[in-house]
Amino acid sequence: MKIIEYGLCVWNGTKENKGISSKDDLLHFKQVYDFTQDPPVLVYTKTDEEFYIEWEKSEINQFAQDHIYKYYPVWKQSNILREGNEVEILKMSSFIDDVRAWSNQENPDPWDGSLENILNNRNTYS
Fold this sequence. Notes:
3-stranded antiparallel sheet; two-stranded antiparallel sheet; 41% helix; elongated
């Protein structure tokens, strides 16, 4: 994960090391205070264009893998491929293909809700 501020990388490391697990956690990095005031006064909040995250491909792939495993852990995938019927196999394959398409798009955002919108339900994949 890279945190980009005004086009410059100000952090390059894992989200766990920075204590960031959602977009909400970025807010205190985006806020600019006037510390000459007592108490400090919020002067400005940087926009998403001024302050944003760039994800490494490996991190995006990890988000995708975690989402797939949430519905289809490896043991379940193996059982479906070995003993499942065509409908179950198609449902699982379609779900995995959708998650892979999400991860392969340009600049996927794991925190915008789009990955969570890829749900494993019978109405979507039947």
